[in-house]
Every structure is written in structure tokens, then in C-alpha cells.
Design brief:
Layout: E1 5-10, E2 28-29, E3 32-33, H1 34-45, E4 49-54, H2 59-65, E5 73-77, H3 82-96, E6 102-107, H4 115-126, E7 131-137, E8 142-146, E9 149-153, E10 159-161, E11 165-167, H5 169-182, H6 189-195, E12 201-204, H7 215-233
Parallel strand pairs: 1-4, 1-6, 4-5, 7-12
Antiparallel strand pairs: 2-3, 6-11, 7-10, 7-11, 8-9
Helix pairs in contact: 1-4, 3-5, 5-6
Length: 238
Amino acid sequence: MSEPVVAIVVAAGSGVRLGASVPKAMVPLKGVPLLRRSAEALVAGGVTHLVVVVPDDQRRAFGVALLGCPVPWTMATGGARRQDSVAAGLAVAGEWAPPHRVVLVHDAARPLVPPEAVARVIAAVRGGAPAVVPVVAVADTIRAVDENGSRIVDRSGLRAVQTPQGFDPDVLVTAHRALACAGVVVTDDAAACERLGHPVSLVEGSTDALKITTSIDLVVAGAVLDDRERRATGSPQP
């Protein structure tokens, strides 16, 4: 049996910017909820247990979306902030999941992360890294803005951060406790670990792992799925 890998899937977002009438994680991408696609990608990459953090009043709908999931899963109730939701997921994982040395934190809004990217994160944590982040190079020209105007930033040293991020569970739990005690707000779990002096390792991410935020992102994600299907079947480009 493979060594347990637990993923905290943050799925409590409202989807307001998508203009959706359902939580973002329940928005369909070519007929399949973002949450379900994210769960399947994580499992294909090596995850063995899922803790899905959901709005408390949406547990039934989320449970339906997860029916037939090939690994054990449970739910936690989301908090007011993302870090509160992750902390809630960690608490449930600590009580429910079997002993594990790898925990991932993934945004349900990144449904197309390739399994091989997930596997790279897991391998890096198993190799001894306390915190691991998948990244991609920044393609756009970037300008930094301040009170004196703006200036071009050299993008060669910049990387865009994705999920799933991977951690030693003890490191991540301690980092979130420290955030709560200090009243500090972060939007990135690796940053929480970095505050305590833990190094953050980078692995190759994927442009496929785009975050679904607006309706345009759904269109792009649909095109990515179409391209995957063409490559899988050997169909010619349209």
C-alpha cells in the first residue's frame, strides 16, 4: 500500500467574480464541477486521502459532487479567510486521516493541474523539503508602481506560484498556529512556513494549472481540455 498523502482542498469560495449562482468549486467545466476535476487530478498524482473545505450550508451539494471519488474523503467547514479554511482542514485531517508525512494544500479553482505536477510536489516533500511550491515563469512584462511612478521589473527572476503546495504536516500545522497567535494574514501557505524560517523549495508547475477566477478563465480551461482530448485521441488540430 502506498504511503498516505493527504490533500486539503480549499473549496469554500463564493464564485462572485465568476458571476455564478453556486459556489465556485461547484461551477461546471464542460459539465463536471471544478471540485471534482481537482479531486481527480490530485488522486491521479498520488493523493490517497482528501479533506475538502466547504461552505457549511453546501455540504450536501458538495457530497454529491464527490460521489464515486476513488479515495476516502471527508469535509471541513470553511472559515472567513483562506488561512482559516486551511487550518480547519488541517484539524480535520489530524483527527481523520491515517498517519502521514505529506500534506498538500490545493485550490479547487485549479482543476486542470496535471498529475505529474502533483507528483513532483509529493516527491519533493518525501525527499525532505518542509515546504514545496509549484511555479511557472512569468510571461508578461511587469511594472512596479510607487508614489514616484512606475518602472520595469526584470521578470527573469520572477515566478508565478500555483497549487498544490506540499508540506511536512508538523511544519504546516505549527505555521498556522503561529499565524493565529500573531494575528497575521497570509494568502499563501508556503509564506506561513517561511515566516518561521523554513526554506521553500520550488518545483516545475504547469500553465495548464490556471486558476479559474473569471468567465474568461473558464473559456481558456475549456480550450485546454479540448486540446488534451485531441492529443489523447490523435485527432488533428481544427
